[in-house]
Amino acid sequence: MSSSPTISKQRTRWFKAVAILLPFLLLLALEGGLRLLGYGKDYPLFIADAKSAEHWVMNPEVSEKYFSQNADATVGYQEPFPMEKGTGAFRVFVLGASTAVGYPYLHNGSFHRHLQHRLNHTFPNKTIEVVNLALTAVNSYTVLDFAEQLVNYQPDAVLIYAGHNEYYGALGVGSTTAIGSNPTLVRLILQLREFRSVQLLTNTLNWFKPSVSKSDLQENLMKRMTAKQSIAYNSDLYQRGIHQYEFNLALALSILDERDIPTFVSTLMSNEKDLVPFISDSTQEESSADHFYQLGKAAYQQEDFTAAKQYFVKAKELDMLRFRAPEALNKIIRELSEQFSNVHLVDTRAHLEAQAPHGIIGNEVLLEHVHPNQLGYSLIADAFYQQLREANMINADWKLASDWRTAYQAMPITEVDSLKGAYEIMILKEGWPFYEPIADLDTANRTLPEAIAGALAVQQISWEEAMERLYRHYYQNQNYTEALKVAEAITLEHPNEPQFFTKAAGLALQLNDIQQANYLFQRALILEESAALARKIAINFIKVNALEEALPYLQYITKRESTDLLSLRLANAIESIRAFSENDSLVEHDAKTITQLAENYLLLGKQDTAEVYLKAVLRQEPNNEQAIKLMKKIQN
User: Fold this and answer.
1) Which CATH number fits domain 91-196+220-271+321-410: 3.30.450.20, 3.90.1150.10, 1.10.1040.10, 3.40.50.1110?
2) What is the per-residue pLDDT for 593?
3) H or E segment and range at residue 343
4) For the whole model, what pTM was predicted?
């Protein structure tokens, strides 16, 4: 009888334990069941490329993790890079939002493609991988989340340009997707979104919400993402945005620094001179963005540029529609760059100010509030390029480093890319918060590139289809210079596919641009290391009499295939010709040497040149048997 109370206590404890554990066990069972049934999604940063199982690409659905409505989720680049990193390859990841994406140009108008093109030319024999992980309408939460994952994919450097979306980007403090002002809590919720049971709950709640209407989707993403249109300077919500950015960026940089990954973080710039504040406080002059903007315009007209800049920046700070990053974020970037040994400051703002009239950034380098024009994107790329060089990255000699203007002029941005950007900005500015009517366009007399760009801007065709049409148009009209630009643009879009490089190189040879052809052929051979490709390249160079360029490819063949006697003979022939200086007079050499020279040219298929030398021999020795034999061979 005395044991009954003990048994009762044990049962009570057991029942309490079961009561506590039961909800967790049920949740665990639900989670396991949902996964077995294939419900929900994982959100890894990278997935296997559907076109090549040996390459990673950015997960096109990864942004759904950060948006409350899938209709708002954005898709970035799917730039494949090898799962097995090649020996000597230099791999760069780019993090950020729409400016880092390259809006409104995308593709080769983005700063990362400018950087890729320039690094390729600086190091033509190295594999340079610049992989863009930026997404439109995201902010520092995504930068941090991506930074935690990309450390496992062998980056040699990480480039960050982010900060304009802390208020209205996904999970921004003033956005329609805000879920809290505590960054730690928000990060916990993001982790919970990986669970199928949480996805089930979210989808169930969304099912009871009104669906997103077509009219809502017709509004631009800027408006759909904006909940708090007026955020006063130094208000609680204003400060939350700054705290959120500092917390997330500091943690991202510390993660990368701990793994000894060089990180290049950029200052932010926005339109100061040529953007009227979106929303201004009309209650008092000292907090009126419009008031200070007008003071800036007046000072600028009076050529007091120091005062003008101060007023313009003040107006930007007071603009209550916070699409432009506050000055506090640049202060944070500078301070954090000094705290970590592997973090490098890229002062993009100062770099663009140096090119802007009187050091005040405006429409000369920007299209609207924050997105650069083609000149602006090239300058951002230059700022990162110079810092990579200063940090002595890539572990190689920078002797082929180019100046910014040369690189900008060489960048293969097509007419369609340029026009598409212009059209897309016109469409953007027609809506909120700009409300600038679209100017009448002469659609009846559009050129074909204009028509292609228009279709691309409204997403009637893909970029690949646009480039195919444009290339065909130029080639059929024998405009090989512009056709080559299109072909080069495609090599940047498909950097792992050698056939695009050889096609572009062939066009360069048609234009007698031997240097460019050689660069493109080199890139192709890096991608496809084969004697067969090297043989094709050598033959192409020999045909256009570019013997110096052909020689390294012949030597490449003989090293890989010692039994290829023809390539060996061709290489020896070219070396023999090289030994005979162009400045040498024929009379300085005996008939045997000149005959051998002619024979070398004949071996290379250069009958006309061989004939010149043979005639010189026969003038000296009319009965020279070898010269006569070779001459008959040419005549036959």
Assistant:
1) 3.40.50.1110
2) 83
3) strand 343-346
4) 0.91
